[in-house]
Amino acid sequence: MNEKAFNGIGASPGVVIGRAYLLDRRKVVVAGQRIEEVKVKDEVARFKKAVEISKAQLEELKKRFSKGLGKSHAYILETLIMLLEDKMLVDGTVKRIKDLRVNAEGALKETIDAIGLKFDAIEDEYLRERKHDIEQVGERILRNLTGHKQESLADISDEAVIIAHDLAPTDTLMMRKDKILGFATDAGSRTSHTAILARSLGIPAAVGLERITGAVKTGDVVIVDGIHGVVIVDPDEETFLEYLKKQRRYKYFEQELEKLRLLPAVTLDGDVVHLEGNIELPEEVASVAEHGGTGIGLYRTEFLFLNRPDLPTEEQHYQACRHVAERASPQEVVIRTLDVGGDKIGFGGVSEKEANPALGLRAIRFLLQRKDVFKAQLRGILRASVHGNVKILFPMISGLAELREAKMVLEEVKNDLRTEDVPFDENVKVGIMIEIPSAAMISDLLAKEADFFSVGTNDLIQYTLAIDRANEHVAYLYEPLDPAVLRLLQRVSQAAHEARIPLAMCGEMAGDPLYASILLGMGFQHLSMNVASIPWVKKVVRSVRMEDAVELAALVMRQPTAAHARKTAETFMHDRFPDLMAEL
Ligand code: PEP
Ligand code: MG
């Protein structure tokens, strides 16, 4: 019996069974060899051919990306194609083959290393980061020279379950849903951005498995249970049949939930709850209504601009926001200003070299330092506000001074637009993310100056419990029901209610049906989540009485530890929703 089971974290729900594809991110090892004079011409020709093949591969990828979800990312490929014509890279390598009489692999490797050194010496962070693009292109040429396969998720043509050490958010975006059945990674956590993207694309995934890449070969049969974070390699017949049954049951249950799509999210005693969608890309707007959501509670604008060499312009902001606002209208769209930094790295002009990026120049801090970037985005959003029901959300506000400064910049931008006679919604509401403990602690003060609150539990839990949200080694400590977290939530709710401003939650906690009744009982009127979670949470909302939810919240609040609180929540849910709990 060869069956091996691995436990990690359920990152995106669903059960998949399929053949593994081990994504090899190791660098190609090359041997630099001296060649004879007569071979120089052939070697140059061989190198040039590899460049041409690389170009054709990238062109092909670009063509594929000009359609569908990935189309806003085609420019990444354009940058890479341009580098294949770069003089330093191409002519530099040819010159080395000729002058040093080395083979193409050795000459290319030396050229890339030499360019790398030059880039390292550059002061400007952004320019220095271009080194990665050169390395990526160089690696592609090397793979074509040595006959190694290219490792891009977009190239995978047979159905497969991807096994990788880690995936970047861009990798996830390149996944074709019809080919990639699911994925499992050594690294990552439930709230890492790769996991969030997997959920929004509806691809089942388990992360934080620590050593799955060492245990799987391409072609092995694997099962990924994205609900419980379990991966089974080479399952025996009994396990295989058991998971086949689980997969069928899960699909059936999803279909049952689908029937709730058009029904409103109201409790048994008539309280209306707003279930909204979190989106990362403008193309996802339609999926919110398709899953039975009403409006967009969080549009994470940074994902549209992932990995681009420069920062987005006002016009690009305007076009993206207008697209979202128009399509969601008359429902509301909460547009969050850029939250760059942290694990959302790879943005033009943003430093990637901080020792503690989560505590560094991120989100509103970055925007207040780079007012040009901030203003360009605010102008774009405001201009788009006449095309729908737009609200603005500032990320990572830690105190009153920061909120006031951000609002002042907004006022300046509004004044500029007025002077220029550019129309915008004069009543646009401005809310703040409550995702730093300091903001939760002074939420009574902030509530007087913000139009609404949206609680970001992904960061709030990270900062409250001192747990890196992307670190698989501490993921087991990440606990939404920790009494410290619950007390902060309670405090924020009280502040919002006293100031009579709307209270929303848009962190991942809002999309977990286990917590839904507690959050209702605590007074959250808007829950914004991954679209796939909407039917699950709606099922709970439509089957509870607000009275009971308030009682449950009070009971959970009295528990001394997270484990006690969890037990209380689970007991309540098992009593009320045995079928749903069996699927969780
Ligand atoms: C959060 O922190 O909970 C949140 C919604 O924002 P993000 O996950 O984009 O940091
Ligand atoms: Mg956050």
Structure report:
With 584 residues, the protein is of the alpha/beta class. It has helices spanning 40-65, 74-83, 87-100, 104-120, 125-146, 169-174, 193-201, 237-258, 285-290, 314-328, 363-369, 371-384, 400-419, 437-441, 443-447, 457-465, 483-499, 513-522, 534-543, 546-557, 562-576, 578-583; strands at residues 4-7, 9-12, 15-22, 160-164, 180-185, 205-207, 221-225, 230-233, 274-279, 296-300, 332-336, 389-394, 429-434, 452-455, 503-505, 526-529. The strands form two sheets. The protein has an eight-stranded mixed beta sheet with strand order 1-8-7-3-4-5-6-2. Strand 10 (296-300), helix 10 (314-328) and strand 11 (332-336) form a beta-alpha-beta unit. Helix 1 (40-65) crosses helix 5 (125-146) and helix 20 runs antiparallel to helix 21. It is globular and about 85 Å long. The model has no long low-confidence stretch (mean pLDDT 88). Magnesium ion binds at residues 435, 456, 458-459. Residues 298, 300, 339, 435, 456-459, 506-507 line the site of phosphoenolpyruvate.
